[in-house]
Amino acid sequence: MKEATVPINGLRDALEQDIAKSLDMDGHVAKLEKLRLLFGHSIEALQFDEPPQECNCVMHALDFRMEHPTTPLGRFFANTLYLGWLIERDVLTLIEGEPMAGSLAVYYVGGKVEHVGVVQSSGRIVSKWGIGMLCEHEPFEVPSSYGSKIRYFVAIDPDTAWELLAAFHNWRR
Questions:
Q1: CA distances (Å), 165 to each of 50, 71, 155, in order?
Q2: Whole-Å CA distances, 25 to 132, 138, 173
Q3: Which of 35, 42, 98, 117 is at 20 to 30 A from 143, Cα to Cα?
């Protein structure tokens, strides 16, 4: 099973405090640059064509965009509970070896899914952070609350993910 773990360090704690817990989205990029000087990280904030507060990490990773009404019952209709549900039902296939571009990098705290990103051809990950930025980063250059364990899965196509979202919400009733 392809899995990675790392202890929480100063960078991750600083990302948690200065980025993940901060509602000052306009200041996120400046804070990220300040943390680069302190920790020498390689995180890059990416241009995001959607209003950042209208999309979460799961919606981004599964390629749900604003053309789908993903929030009719409240914000973030597709969330980490949904992603965990897909994993529990073996809809997402665990990758045994090295992940390929397009694979999902799923972050855990204990056995609970906390975050997800998409693996790039470079091995770096692109993920949506909280209400703010879309970032490209090394696997553990993320806020500490995202966890210290990563498992990689084969992504499913957005149409299948969309169809399963309705089944998930019917299951939860």
A1: 21, 11, 15
A2: 5, 22, 34
A3: 98
The closest of 171, 136, 145 to 47, measured between CA atoms, is 136
- Cβ atoms of 81 and 115 within 8 Å: the answer is no
The predicted-structure confidence for 120-159, as pLDDT tens digits, reads as follows 999 999 999 977 789 999 999 999 999 999 999 999 998 8
Nearest alpha carbon to residue 71 among 63, 60, 79, 61: 79
Q: How far apart are alpha carbons 64 and 162 in whole angstroms?
A: 8
Give the residue, 118 or 54, on which the prediction is more confident. 118
CA distances from 143 to 1, 10, 21, 39, 85 (A): 24, 10, 9, 13, 23
Token pair 């990563």 in the structure block, residue:
150
**Domain residues of the chain, as ranges?**
3-172
User: What is the H or E stretch that residue 34 is in?
Assistant: helix 28-39
79 CB neighbour count, 10 Å cutoff: 18
Q: Do 160 and 75 form a contact (C-beta atoms < 8 A)?
A: no
Who's near 72: CB < 8 A, 6+ residues apart?
Answer: none
